[in-house]
Design a protein that fits this description.
The protein is mainly beta. The chain contains 2 helices and 28 strands. It is 10% helix and 38% strand. Bound molecules: calcium ion (3 copies). One of its GO terms (biological process) is carbohydrate metabolic process.
Length: 493
Amino acid sequence: MRMLLRRSALAGGAAIVAVALLVAPASAEKRSPLLVEKSTGVRTVKDGGTIAYTITVRNTGTDALPSVSVAEDLGEALDDATYNGDAAGPGAPAGLGPPGTLTWTFPLAAGATATLTYSLTTTGAGDRRAASALRVSAPGYSSAGVCRTVVPVLRTGPDIALVKNVSRKVAMATTTVVYRVLIANRGDTAGTVDVTDDLTDVIDDASFQKASSSQGAAPVYTAPRLTWSGEIAPGGNVTVTYEVRVGTRWTNAVLNNAVTAPGTNCVTGQAAECRTRVPVSSLRLTKSGPPPNGGPPGTVLNYIIVARNDGAYDLVGDYPALAYDDMSQLVDDADYNNDAAGGPGTATWASPRLNVRAELKVGESTTWRYSVTAKAGGNGDFVNAFRSATNIPTDAPPDKPLPAPDRDDTADGDAIGRCRLDPPAPVPTPPTPSPSTSTTSPPPPGPTPTTPHGLPETGGDGRVLLGLLAAGAVAALTGVVLMAAARRRRRQE
Ligand SMILES: [Ca+2]
Ligand SMILES: [Ca+2]
Ligand SMILES: [Ca+2]
């Protein structure tokens, strides 16, 4: 199958046409005669497989080109593959030149096509993207950009990947938190895996409860690590499940842990799919006030209530800090004076409760003072209690999926690129100061505009287009200068 990437050529062609219509300088109408196509032959390759490249360079012009240079930069492929020493075609190189580049140099007659080939064999090392970048140049023509191809290198053998999910976004005291580690083999042969979850930063706030696996051996918990080892058939998977229970006292109020397994996506456990973090929410309430025997009727009794977010979860938005001072056992002995003062947040009286609401980030607190006046007729117990009514999310975070396996249908798998050389870019001629050209700015100083080195295949169109527009602008200025010179000649005649 052959696919052509035409964007560069189309965008460049459109730009040239536009400039030509505006000023029509003769030098800008001449298009590059070189048509370059590159094929990798395959969209993907497996470990140990071969990528056979074919590059065709056709001189579509009417003049022979004495020297065409084709340089293929293998810098991003040699981490994944070895060069087979088989470059062929006119002017084929004897070997790789520094830095990992194959260069063919040859003459090309008008209408002729040169076919250049070489191959790589993948090693299973590297970043699994065999990328190569082609530049073509000829005297009088600068390279319009780079034909960059990327061939994904697929694994052979087992391909074991893990993902770990958890049952709660947020926990609180006594919450049971359930972890599920899915271990899947997407490869073409069975593979063994050793999975470890270090629970050091979990069991400082929670206690380990139990663990199980969907098949194979049972997980083993030896504090602080949970481990599971086993073989997984190609296409098979195992789920290891385990539970912890948050305590009522904790260290850093965060259940933070990661699975690790050599030879998988979780070698270090740093990838997001390998980790979970469950904050523990807590609102610590304190209260100071008079002794519970209160005082004789008419005595004013003062209270201070404080709510502090001492967990690791911000109590804001839909889940603010909520607490209430329950005076149901006090109102028979005293009247609330409707004088709550403090903050942040609000304190509102709804007999027999004083309700406190505040947005408290981790570490923040809200403080309120109020008073009651003792009265006769009660049972003499001046009892009230400050309690939390805070809600937290009880749902699970969205399940993370397994990371995508090496696939053969990614956009990066476009295996065939096409590029075309720039039209000739005339050397800018400094304008002669003259009234007839005074409305035009001088052309930019310096060398002929060229395309920046290292243009990627994707995202390069705009830069190529800019380069072409710059060349067109220079050409337009040259056209103005030529017309001015013609007018001067006519005046002199
Ligand atoms: Ca690579
Ligand atoms: Ca912890
Ligand atoms: Ca009472």
